[in-house]
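input
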Amino acid sequence: MKACIIKSVVCAIGVMSSGYVLAAGGGGVVADPGALEGKHFDAKGNAPSKYTVELQKSLRKTLPFEDRRDFEESKRGLIATPAYKTIMADAGNVAWDMGSYDFLLQGKEFDSVHPSLQRQAILNMAYGLYEVVPGKIYQVRGFDLANISFIKTNTGWIVFDPLAAKETARAALELVNEKLGKRPVIAVVYSHSHADHFGGVRGVVDEADVKSGKVKIIAPAGFMDHAIAENVYAGNAMTRRLYFQYGVLLPRSPFGHVDQSIGKNTAAGNLGLIEPNVYINQPYEKMTVDGVEMEFQNTPGTEAPAEMNTYFPQFKAFWAAENITGTIHNIYTLRGALVRDSLAWSKNINNALYRYGNESDVMFASHTWPRWGNARIQEVMRTQRDSYAHLHNEVLHLANNGVTINEIQNVYKQPESLKKQWAAHSYHGSEEHNSRAVINRYLGYWDANPATLAPLSPKDAAPLYVEMMGGSAKILAKGRELYKKGQYREAMEIVNKLVYAQPNNVPAKDLLADIFEQIGYQKESPSMRNSFLGAAYELRHGMPTGASPKTNGPDMIRGMTTELWLNALGISMDSKKAADMNFVINLSTPDNGEQFVIEMSNSALTNIKGQQAKNPNLTVTLNRSDLERVMGGQTTFDQLQAQGKVQFDGDRKVFDQLRSTLTVFVPDFELMPGTKPKAAQKPVAQPAKDPFAAQEIAITAGE
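output
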């Protein structure tokens, strides 16, 4: 059966070539029929070592498990649990499968899972329709990574954060209407610019109603820019890296994927985007929609670059978006993103505490569960405020005393008073990678040792270490000795060098995988756990093959500005191919009145908006609506020219020169050495992608 499970994982990746859609920030459903029986899904996998078992036992004695309030709050207000546990995508695949995590509900203690993480994973098993404020506010939880919230107005519903996929959002709306009476959706609020908070919008409203003004879509200032821009420039790298952070290849199992900290996983369905028609621009802004009063608090630079909380004065209810949930969040997200501002995050929570916290009776959010009672709300707000503030202040205190970015993860510790509070635990983040992020934000990656300023690449440095340590046999022997003693980080340090020096050394890769596996079992943060277990999987079985997942739908392309697309062309350009090229192109899109100058010089492609060169080599004129079809891969410039929809005035040769330099990125590179198959399976024939089509966007969620 283990071999069957491995095959199922590979198949889940292989079907990418036949229309598989990677979830926003995650993967498709990879269930493990052996999970309920406690069987490891991998023939090469190991049970927890005696050192891991001893660690988990000690944690069960020292963590504050006597505090059961989160369990009481997570169950409060349950109205209905659906009879079904799977939701199908329109494309025919399983978009959501809550039942694949049923192994968590057996009442077992898993030594392969950090006890605190197992607790969080059980809390996130909430599944169904819940009442938050009697007769007024409801949530559907467990239908996607995020919660979808419904505010009852005089005549309809205001929907807060319509999940990541059309299919899961549609199912949630159907459940609400079935149990509470059918009402129209009159408004949607996007709390912030991550895909699990807007991607399912087409499951709850029709775009025509938004364009006509019949339905409001309300979002924080800068939403459209950030919903797309964060994931474009390094999107290919982000897509590959999220295989580790989200455990894309890992089956749902006590030995694999157990949780994603703010929810179980992300739905593998149809992600869309409808542009908002109402923006919140002021720090605080009041609005009444069909009898429901709301005050929006803009909190830019916290969990997302565009994000807002909401207060409902009639109900004394505070919506904390993703700024306050059941976990300390990422200051740096492992798939890659700009480092966030932990000080700003703390201050925005403080502003909410003093403006709304003193009068709120309930606090609910786009993930995890609500908190009721004013004292409880203030307790959680202060706990999270202080967690972000302590992280920021203590890390910089240590940095100002000489602790470097390469040491801080071993030095920074939360105070005991915070460790005793569940709301201060870093499931989505981790103290290790968040502390490094704070230093990186202020001081950058360099630790001020010149030896690390321009170091050798790992593959070049590793052979020197292997030689000086006496060769692979001695390293393997020492690595196994350290492994058997439970000194996993020390073993990792030397065996990782050997794998870089000898990527085809199977015993070395297997030993490193064994080491990673034990470290993964011990991690409280799912992102850390998934990264170690995902790397172990690829070391043992190789990286995924097949066509890359497609994430660029028409909604995402429409949301990409022309300038963003041009900037991305500059990144996809192979500068070596552009040597000695010099030209100037004017670009004009008459239907939206935009103009650009595109210049190639010194092997760099630059652009400037709102300008036209006086003597360009070439002028390209086409409507933005037609350009979007090029960006979306539906047509090409040549086809548009044949249809008379694009005009080239001047030297067409420079356009062809530009095209010859462009690279189509594919997330097929190794994250761990020696994991790419030498003779890759022959991929299913795919039509050649036009290099002017937009690169695949890394649609990530909940980060």
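quick obs: Confidence is low (pLDDT under 50) at residues 1-25.
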